[in-house]
Amino acid sequence: MDTSEFRKRGKEMVDYVADYMEGIERRQVYPDVEPGYLRPLIPAAAPQEPETFEDIINDVEKIIMPGIASPACTELEMVMMDWLGKMLELPEAFLAGEAGEGGGVIQGSASEATLVALLAARTKVTRWLQAASPELSPAAIMEKLVAYSSDQAHSSVERAGLIGGVKLKTIPSDDKFAMRASALQEALDSDKAAGLIPFFVVATLGTTSCCSFDNLLEIGPICNKENMWLHIDAAYAGSAFICPEFRHLLNGVEFADSFNFNPHKWLLVNFDCSAMWVKNRTELTGAFKLDPLYLKHSHQDSGLITDYRHWQIPLGRRFRSLKMWFVFRMYGVKGLQAYIRKHVQLSHEFEALVRQDPCFEICAEVTLGLVCFRLKGSNKLNEALLERINSAKKIHLVPCHLRDKLVLRFAICSRTVESAHVQHAWKHIKELAAELMRAEKV
Ligand code: PLP
Predict the structure, then answer these.
(1) Which residues contact 217 (CB under 8 A, 6 or more apart)?
(2) In sequence order, what are the residues at sequence separation of 6 or more whose Cβ sits closer than 8 angstroms to the Cβ of residue 416?
(3) Could you say which DSSP state residue 387 is in?
(4) Is the shortest distance between the CB of 336 and ligand 1 below 6 Å?
(5) Which of 262, 267, 398 to mutate to test the pocket of ligand 1 (most atoms within 8 A of CB)?
(6) Is the CB of 274 within 6 Å of ligand 1?
C-alpha cells in the first residue's frame, strides 16, 4: 500500500468506526456464535498472492463482527498462528488445528515468551519431582534448578532467570558464536555431579550481536534425553524461515517444547506481535491456571475454546491477530518472502563493499540482514569511527563485542530500503573512516 492509498484507507477506517459508534444501539451486547465458528469461514492457510484491502474489510464485517466481543479475537488468533506456523513449516505438533495438543499465542515480546516458557518449565519439573519425592518442598527444588543459554543469548534470557528465581548459566559458544553439544553436555555433567537440577535450555536462532545460530540438531537431542524444556528464541531471524532457502536454519525445531519469534521485527506486522508456539499447551495452561468466579463462562472446561488468559501473564489482551490477518493477506506469502529476500540481498551487497576495502574486515558470517564489520585495528579506532558515524546522524549503527573485538553492526531494517541507501551509507562510512585515519596520523 502506497502513502496515497494509506491516506484514503485511513480515512475510510475513521468512517467505519464512526458508523459503528452511531449504530451501536442496534447491536447485541453478546454474540450468537458457537465455539469454533470462525475457522471454517476462512482458508486453512495464508494466500500466496496479495489480496485487496476491500476483500479484507468486507470479511471483517462478515466474519469478525458477528463474533465481537471476544470469540472473534481468540479464534482469529488461533487460526493466524496456524497460518504463520504453516508458513514456517513448523512441525504439525506445534499447530492447534481442530484437535491438536499444541498451538500458538501472541505475546507482547520475545522477553515475555522466554519468561512464560521458563515459568512453565519450572512448574513442570517441580510437579514431576514432587510426585516422585513428596517430601521435597518447592523452595528446596527451586534452589537447585539450573537453566542454560549460550554466552551470545539476549539479555532477556538472563532476566527471565532473575524473574523466575532460578540460576541461569551461560555456555561458551564456539568460533562461529554457536552453542554446541559438547559445551552444553560438559556443563550439565558438572552441574548434575554438584547436585543441581538442569531443567531449561534457551537456544537462540539469530543472536542479537551477530545473527549466529545455536546448533539445534546437536542441542535438541540432549534436551530431550535429559528431560529439559527446550525453548527457541528466534526473535529476529524467525521471519526469514518463511523462505524455503532459509528454512534449514530452523531444522531441529522438532526437539523443542516452545518456539518464538517477533513478526513485529521483520515480517511487517506492527509492534507488538511476538509469536509463540508450544507443543503441549496444557504445560502452559497448567502452570498459570486460576479460575475465579468473575472469569467463569459457559464453555468453561468444555475443551471447545482456547482461554488465552492461561497462556500468558496478563489477563486482558488486545486483538493483535487482526494485524496479522491484514498483513498476510495484503502481501501474500510471496510478497513477504520477496521482502525478506530483498533485505538479505542488500546485506550481502553491503558485505561485498566491505570485503572490497582492505582497511575493513567482516567479523561474522552474513546469513540474513545483519553485517558485522570493523576497521582493521584497535577497538579505540572503531569506537572513534562509531562516534563519528552516530554523531553525523545520517545513519545509525549499534555496536557489539564479539569476544574482545568491538564490532559495528549494519542492519537492513527499513521497509523502504533500496540499494541506493546501502551504497550511500557505505560511501558515508568510508568518508568518515578516511577523515578519522587522517586525524589519527596527525
Ligand atoms: N531475543 C533476541 C535474539 C533479540 O534480538 C531480542 C531483541 O533484539 C530479544 C530477544 C528481545 O526482544 P523483545 O524486545 O521482543 O523482548
Answers:
(1) 251, 252
(2) none
(3) H
(4) no
(5) 262
(6) yes
Pocket lining: 111 vs ligand 1, CB cutoff 6 Å: yes
Q: Residue with C-alpha cell 519450572? A: 122
User: Is 405 strand, coil or helix?
Assistant: strand
Any atom of ligand 1 within 6 Å of the Cβ of 262: yes
Query: Which regions of 151-278 does DSSP assign to beta strands (E)?
Result: 167-171, 197-204, 229-233, 258-261, 274-278
Neighbour order of strands in the sheet with 229-233: 103-107, 274-278, 258-261, 229-233, 197-204, 145-150, 167-171
Atom of ligand 1 minimally distant from the CA of 109:
15
One-letter amino acid at 41 equals L
Q: Cα(204) to centroid of ligand 1, in Å?
A: 10
CA–CA–CA angle 95, 98, 103 (5° rounding): 25
Assess whether the C-beta atom of 231 lies below 6 angstroms from ligand 1.
no
pLDDT in tens, 5-51: 999 999 999 999 999 999 999 998 889 999 999 999 999 999 999 99
User: Which numbered atom of ligand 1 lies nearest the CA of 111?
Assistant: 16
Confidence grade of residue 442 (pLDDT, cut at 50, 70, 90): low
Rg, the chain, Cα only: 24
**How many angstroms separate the CA atoms of 116 and 101, rounded?**
18
| Any ligand 1 atom below 6 A from CB of 156 | yes
Whether this model's pTM surpasses 0.90: yes
Is residue 208 lining ligand 1, measured as CB closer than 6 Å? yes
* Residue 236 CB–ligand 1 contact under 6 Å: yes
Is residue 329 within 8 A of residue 321, CB to CB? The reply is no
CA of 407 to the centre of ligand 1 (A): 19
CA distance 204 to 280: 21
CB 105 within 8 A of CB 82: no
Name the β-bridge partners of 426: none
- Cβ atoms 107, 309 nearer than 8 A: no
333-358 pLDDT, tens digit each: 999 999 999 999 999 999 999 999 99
Distance of CA 304 to the CA centre of its chain: 28
